[in-house]
Design goal:
By secondary structure, this protein is mainly alpha-helical. The protein has 18 helices and no strands.
């Protein structure tokens, strides 16, 4: 005897003519964002990076990565453009036109203003401005400047504590110059063109110190390249899968030295210039920030303490000041600019000679340099191999 509650699902509805309630499914719930959910995303990203690609596709992705990270000279096509842009038949005519036009305008300005220093100042300003424009466009330095500027602004909160290590001693030294009558007489006596030439001289000397010393950091990095270095550098980049494949073949001994990324680690030529340029722009931007702070400090200090009568006594001439800020004079601005540019030179020399400061400063960008050196080695090895890499699996 069958219990009245039981029935065959194929016999129709149960007694009473009421349909049984439809089974309900539990409502889907949104997974919580935990640390564990990041791992599947990371694995998916690695699978996408490791997806089989032709050599041409991998190299094109690497070229795009180089351009986006301030390394245009790592791309062969860009290097060819730069080499063509530096040829004498292109640079000499442009330089001659720039110098000739600026010299003519400088002489005219010197006659009108009765300042002899106006002519060389205008020539230097025109050549510097034209050289910067030519470097940013024809010489493909724009991506380097943008990336270095982005890194500088992004690391300001980390840079200020390190940059201010040299600030107390600098302020003590330069403050004694600021309250020195001879410095005021010298600065106030400089015409506009002479002051500009003085600032350019200080900045040029500082950049020269950086250009001489910073290449040593690049040489230290490419000397430390090994397989672990390459894996760490290529992780999360378009060449991550190619790096693992090349290193596996290297351990098997199935590739020659042309496809050995460790053997391609030495950075030279335009690529080395690219890394040095990145470091110079990066550190020059940081020193410019600190010297600007010094200039603003002396402007404020002078507005508070330097009475117009004191300024007239020290400069032995009348001072032109703003109506509402009688202490803010042209002489004060000249002295502040003079000491600010001198601070730029002082900081450049002290930072390149202070090993502890230099190591801390470059520690903020050493990851960028490692990635650049490691990716270049893998990039050249992949180009030297000249065949499609087989798919790799985790």
């Amino acid at each position: 005897m069958t219990p009245p509650d039981e029935h065959d699902a194929t016999d129709g509805p149960p007694a009473g003519g009421e349909d049984p309630p439809a089974p309900t499914e539990p409502a889907p719930t949104e997974p919580l964002a935990t640390a564990g959910t990041a791992r599947p995303r990371l694995r998916r990203r690695r699978r996408e990076e490791d997806a089989p690609q032709s050599v041409e596709e991998t190299l094109a992705a690497a070229d795009k990565w180089f351009d986006g990270h301030g390394l245009p000279y790592f791309v062969p096509e860009r290097r060819a453009q730069v080499r063509e842009g530096l040829s004498p038949r292109r640079t000499l005519p442009r330089l001659g036109v720039a110098v000739g036009v600026s010299a003519a305008l400088g002489v005219l300005l010197a006659v009108l203003t009765d300042q002899v220093s106006a002519a060389p100042a205008l020539v230097v300003a025109s050549v510097v401005a034209g050289g910067l424009w030519y470097a940013l466009t024809t010489l493909q330095a724009g991506p380097v400047v943008r990336w270095a500027g982005t890194r500088t602004l992004g690391n300001v909160r980390h840079l200020l504590p390190q940059l201010t290590r040299a600030l107390p001693l600098l302020l003590v030294f330069v403050t004694f110059l600021f309250i020195n009558a001879e410095v005021w007489q010298l600065s106030a006596s400089l015409a506009g063109g002479a002051l500009w030439l003085t600032l350019v001289l200080f900045v040029a000397l500082a950049i020269g110190f950086l250009v001489v010393r910073l290449p040593e950091e690049v040489d230290r990095l490419d000397d430390a390249v090994d397989e672990d270095f390459l894996r760490r550098a290529c992780e999360g980049t378009p060449l991550a899968g190619a790096c693992r494949d090349l290193l596996a073949r290297r351990r098997e001994g199935s590739e020659g030295t042309a496809a050995d990324p460790v053997a391609r680690a030495q950075v030279s030529g335009y690529e080395r210039t690219n890394l040095v340029l990145f470091l110079v722009i990066l550190q020059a931007g940081q020193l410019l920030l600190l010297s600007a702070l010094v200039t603003v400090f002396f402007l404020l200090f002078g507005v508070i303490t330097m009475d117009p009568t004191v300024q007239e006594t020290w400069t032995a001439s009348d001072v032109a000041a703003l109506p509402l800020l009688s202490n803010l004079s042209v002489a004060l601005v000249k002295v502040s600019l003079f000491l600010g540019s001198f601070s730029f030179l002082y900081l450049a020399v002290s930072t390149v000679t202070d090993e502890s400061y230099r190591s801390q400063l470059l520690g903020l960008v050493v990851r960028e340099l490692e990635r650049a050196v490691g990716l270049r080695a893998v990039y050249l090895a992949l180009r030297g191999r000249g065949e499609e890499p087989p798919p790799t699996t985790d």
